[in-house]
Amino acid sequence: ARVGVVRETNPDERRVALVPKIIPALLKQGVEVVVEAGAGLGALIPDEAYTEAGATLGDPWSAEVVVKVAPPNDAEIAKLSAGQTLIGFLAPRNADNKIGALKSAGVQAFAVEAIPRISRAQVMDALSSQANVAGYKAVLLAASESTRFFPMLTTAAGTVKPATVLVLGVGVAGLQALATAKRLGGRTTGYDVRPEVADQVRSVGAQWLDLGIDAAGEGGYARELTDDEKAAQQQALENAIKGFDVVVTTALVPGRPAPRLVTAAAVEGMKPGSVIVDLAGETGGNCELTEPGKTVVRHGVTIASPLNLPATMPEHASELYSKNIAALLELMLKDGALAPDFEDQVLADSCVTRERSEQSAQKVEA
Ligand code: NAD
To answer: Which residues form the Alanine dehydrogenase/pyridine nucleotide transhydrogenase N-terminal domain (predicted)?
Structure first.
């Protein structure tokens, strides 16, 4: 099969779907790789690095399989034709997704977001690989916005107490945020509505904040809280948050708006100079005062809601994503030819242009 690597068109999207390093392994499987000129530039990868790795430069949009990072826009979809396969983030749960358009165009599309969270699929799990980048970078941003040190310092000029860091929502990004804050010397605490997370929180040297709410849902995700639970949670968090210098929020419920964990009153209760980094801005934010994509100061507290953080670390984010894409491709290939077996749960779930997976996507949304 011929695999095309496109140059992303959104100026903020600096990642690339395949880095040169992964190409020899694909060639070995009988795949041909064609790369659009400049595809790697956002990640500081020159075209020559691709040709040296065995790829050719050319038109990726005519390849049998097109691999991408960000969801395609209309102009990009117009470059595809019936029978082609597209792999990338397709935001299947966003109301304005392009899956209908891809389907009408006869394109077979695989959304990496829909890869099931099962052990066998971990190597293909792009949500996880990119969430690791986001969780790490969120803490660096928090440290950089903070008026205080993270580590405890004992100096001739006096002693500084370590920063207290609370992470709300401890999935992949939250766990990486806790680990990163710990490495910087912060005193860390984690909170989630899935009780099973407590041990993972402790395993990265953080304390577990128990508010007595259990909302474990399906497939390892959380369910949305009832109105009563939401009110109880907001009140309990309002009390808990007061004591923290830094709050990083990552809480998400698939297909739903981000849960509101931090109320305006909770922000008001924090010490001036404290920092909130809200990673849920794309679905509305976990903090009531969050302005997605912006950094604002409210009641003396800096609230940052960066969007698409993985794209701000394009080198490693692309490297990890490439590994995910290559593993997914490998699953679809047989003797170098594209032959996806839809009996395989990973392919059946992630292919969003087939009847069956559409129905299951709707089931998740309902
Ligand atoms: P996510 O991005 O969907 O959500 C982030 C976190 O927010 C989750 O831990 C969730 O429980 C939490 N959350 C939701 N509502 C909340 C609320 N009201 N209050 C507090 N916290 C709230 O999660 P994710 O990072 O995609 O991880 C989801 C699950 O999938 C985890 O159990 C993770 O370990 C699992 N996982 C499994 C695999 C695998 O086996 N292949 C790979 C990756 C992740």
So the answer is: 4-134
